[in-house]
Amino acid sequence: MIKAILIFNNHGKPRLSKFYEHYTEDTEQQIIRETFHLVSKRDDNVCNFLEGGMLIGGSDNKLIYRHYATLYFVFCVDSSESELGILDLIQVFVETLDKCFENVCELDLIFHMDKVHNILSEMVMGGMVLETNMNEIITQVDAQNKMEKSEAGIAGAPARAVSAVKNMNLPEIPRNINIGDISIKVPNLPSFK
Amino acid sequence: MALKMVKGSIDRMFDKNLQDLVRGIRNHKEDEAKYISTCIDEIKQELKQDNIAVKANAVCKLTYLQMLGYDVSWAAFNIVEVMSSSKFTYKRIGYLAASQCFHEGTDVIMLTTNQIRKDLSSPNQYDTGVALTGLSCFVTPDLARDLANDIMTLMSHTKPFIRKKAVLIMYKVFLKYPESLRPAFPRLKEKLEDPDPGVQSAAVNVICELARRNPKNYLSLAPLFFKLMTSSTNNWVLIKIIKLFGALTPLEPRLGKKLIEPLTNLIHRLHKHLSVFAVLISLSSGMPNHSASIQCLACVLVKYLGLLAMSKILKTHPKSVQSHKDLILQCLDDKDESIRLRALDLLYGMVSKKNLMEIVKKLMLHMDKAEGTTYRDELLTKIIDICSQSNYQYITNFEWYISILVELTRLEGTRHGHLIASQMLDVAIRVKAIRGFAVAQMAMLLDNAHMLTGNTQRNGICEVLYAAAWICGEFSEHLKDPLQTLEAMLRPKVATLPGHIQAVYVQNVAKLFATVLRGQEGVPDRQVAQETSQLLIDRLPLFVQSANLEVQERASCILQLVKYVQKLQQKEVQVAEEVTALFAGELNPVAPKAQKKVPVPEGLDLDAWINEPPSESESEDEKPKAVFAQEEQRPTRPRHPEVDEKELARRREARKQEQANNPFYIKASPSSQKVYAETPGVEHIPVVQIDLSVPLKVPGMPMSDQYVKLEEERRQREKAERKKKKEKKRRKDKCGRGHRAESGGESEEDITPAHTVDIVTEEMPENALPSDEDDKDPSDPHKALDIDLDKPLVDNEKLPVRAHRPPDALKSPVEGGEGEGVAQEPKKKSKKDKKEKEKRKSKERKASVCFCFACFGIILGFVIGRTRGAPVRPLAVPETSSFLVQSYDIQGNLQDGSQVVVSVIFENKSSSSSFLKCMEFNVLDSLNSKLQRPEGASPHEAVTIPFQLPPGVSNEARFVFSVQSIVMPQKLKGTLAFIVKDSSTHEKLDFKLHFTCTSYMITTPCYSDAFAKLLESGDLKASSVRLEGVSMPFHHLLARICFHHHFSVVERIDSCASMYSRSIQGHHVCLLVKTVSTVSIDAKCDEPSLLENVLQEIKQTFAKC
After folding, report:
1. Is B307 helix (H, G, I), strand (E, B) or coil?
2. Which fold has domain B876-995?
3. A115 at the B interface (CB within 8 A)?
4. Which of the four CATH numbers 3.40.50.2000, 3.40.50.1580, 3.30.450.60, 3.40.250.10 does domain A2-151 have?
5. pLDDT for res B722
6. Does the complex come out with an ipTM higher than 0.90?
7. Which of B135, B285, B305 is the best residue to mutate to test the A interface, defined by the most A CB atoms within 10 Å of its own CB?
8. R_g (Cα) of chain A, nearest Å
9. How far does the CA of residue A102 sit from the closest CA of chain B (Å)?
10. DSSP 3-state of A75
């Protein structure tokens, strides 16, 4: 079982948190902070596994994480999951994000947390791995987005226009300027299949 | 109305959406909290509005704020509102919010049951999907009970998308509602062989999770999993299955042998993956020096996993791991903490009598070097674990162990002072032979207490003093110089220690005092004894003033006692014996579970009332006088009924705490009654010269080394002696035996402990019941799932079904559909079809998915170019004898009523090495149906197929057709052009696509009540057909209709059944199938020509058999 999935940046700011067991908001924040503390002090060239133990109940658990540019993707799992399998799942997740957002960068995750959740929900459900095939995930996500779009129809058009204008006017979306949001590089390699 | 909607949407677009919120938070870095609180106010306003879009937007923002740590449970009801929106967009937002912040304690969850049930049976698969995903995060026992049956139905949904989610969520349902496991298990087992790999892997996932906790119930599935393991290509499934076998093999040893071969094959495959993996990681972490890092990363990963694997092997084959001791010790030097921790874990299992000292010495060295308190603490606990495991089995020299413990106290800033302390206490109490040594060491610790308490108060190590003080006091007869220790314990600095330690100090000061007095007995000079009393009287007031009650109480007691003793001393009375008598008797350790194991004596009912229970009718507004009178009458009446459960638990906890901290709790020694006897004369108190020649050892010195050396010498000596004996013996029987191989190294058993160590076993009550029950945690949810799955189902185990629905109507889709449908399938296919099918079996999923689940499915049926004849040219390409086979199926597109997807499987069947490339697919469009071509292509252009086909390979391509009207069947002519690579000849293949009306039908489950309503509505046109000469069992007939024509059974009564299906454009088709002598089908549909065609097609199907 996967106990939690966390994404945070190099400064420990949460970008996505998904807990498959219930904790209060305060505990969740504390878990994120502690996880960040544990993970961030590790070199890039040490292994991607960390026995968190006390973080999310029981010594059975471990943290499996990967660091992409500015973001850490951390999965907290118990012993029924394979370490390499989860590492691969993280890779699939990131590649899927990359496909869905077209060159995903931290900003995408910041502004579209809901979309990231939707993608994640096609991969992991209630702490169990649902689908590992990237194409299948993308097909389902796309189909659902299409449905959403068709529902918005004409009524949605003005809202979309306004939000486009909003995005245009504000000088704050410097996708190309490096303000610490370097895009996530996904290697163009066949995944572990 | 329309105006209102437009107005609403215009209002809405100036609301703050999620992106605006995020942007705003980023712009208000300094006063983020303030900004967010204004945002929350806005959200509250938005939630009050009627417009669901506004509400959904607000809920979406709340989900974001929840991630930032804000409590949003106050909006739970609004979330439910958004969840119940009919639009998918909002529904999804609602379910996401619910999955993030609902939990078992959320009360509005009760309100969602019906909404979720509605969504689960929604015709839109994505509504169902979203509901399942959400439910998986917040399922409660109530929801699980109410929805178990609905979810079980979904497990045989036509869409693999829903099926896999339904299968997966069953695990959560089982956890919350264990009764559902038995009824649902047969179907879950079926899903292991689902044609869709996603569903299959979900089923494997669920069963593995279940089997991990209670493996013995799943042994019967072993052959099935074995088959899966050898056939599956999905790595996820393989990993899970191997993990499952890991749990099963200990229970069934024969499995292990069987597994060897497939596992070796797998290892060969996985070996490749590992390296691929290492490459992936190094590249993705964006390091510049790839080539260098690959090597090291590969090492890192493999090292970690290797250690992990070793720890598993260790459990079964300790010998094979022990030979790698050096390697593992090396890993302790690794800079990666994870690897070090893993290595430590391994060491735990590797120690033996022989190597314990060596390993611990290495660990001690590491501890000196280690930076980071967590790792150091981990090392410390591991050292203690290693040494104390299985009742100190591996320790041959307890002096060494005590010195190790003393050395550990030098560790700065550790949290584990109490652990060391409890070890010291345990060893000193249970190993009688060591007490003298332990007391000497503890006295030294007490003397140097300032070094332990030195820097900070929060230093956990001062706990050690607790143990030291107690050991010195309790076993003070071993002390060389009790007076000095007494002085050390009365230093003013002691008052800065934590209260519970001071309390122990004070108590043990009294014990020491008794020892000193006894020591002075018979010595003519009484000065020392009197000075000691004076010392106590001087110093104890410090403790009497303590803020800690325990310390205060003990101190004042003892102070009074000493004052009394002093008075007697002045009268020259002998007091030593009496004072010693206060602390006489042995304290024995008690096993931790002893209390629980005391058997209840016969005839004692613990639940029975001691007195009459207070009568219920005793109301509160009774006259107070009466109450008082009653209470007076029975003052012994237990107060317990007034104390609520929580309070009791708290008290119990407090009491346990107290007992744990109190060394005197261990056992009430029979002679520890306080005896204030007459004091005899003091004349004969002896005076002993204090021997100062005892070398003072500073505890900073590592001493354990010298014990290691001593121990080694001892072992050498013993070995030599043994050898001598052996030699003698050998000389004796030399003639008989000839040469006997010299024993290589000394074996485990040869090492005898340094001195006969009497390890006192922990006391258990008499006739305690031996049981290991209490090892299991009763709160473990998996315990409830320990259910025998092979027993047949009993009636009362069936899942609860909503009352207003007849139960057999619910079950019928399963009975009538799936089971027989699959069983039937092979018969009705022509031989050639069968052959094709077998060929395809080994191929990837889609084709066969639809095939097996056709009874619910959306296919038209396979038309294989060659076999279905028609004007299709022979497919053989004569020159190369290559052989192209195509098969296809047609699926309605759920989202779009005017589209169908045709999946075509191309297989290159050539025997030689001819390669097919540049394949182009073209169809002659009709007015009604058009092939959708990529944008910008002309209306007659061919669609290029994006792959090439090596010989013997098949692949699937999908083409989308737009369809105007679906009421008529039609045929489309098409051509496939391709180039055979070797001969580079252009080839062309004609084919026909047959769009039957059935292919536009979608199997949709329908409940009997909805079905009845539909028929009553009167919008439907009726028609009927008779099938002549059909002589098959009725359920086969139904299965066939389900399979070929995408119907589902609504209800079945004897030889009469109602069936339902829906077209992609939403036409309802209802059938009533009856058999009396012939089969008659009465049908109703809102589109007469569609109905006519469907019935014709059904007739054709049965005409063929």
Report:
1. helix
2. Immunoglobulin-like (2.60.40)
3. no
4. 3.30.450.60
5. 66
6. no
7. B285
8. 18
9. 17
10. strand
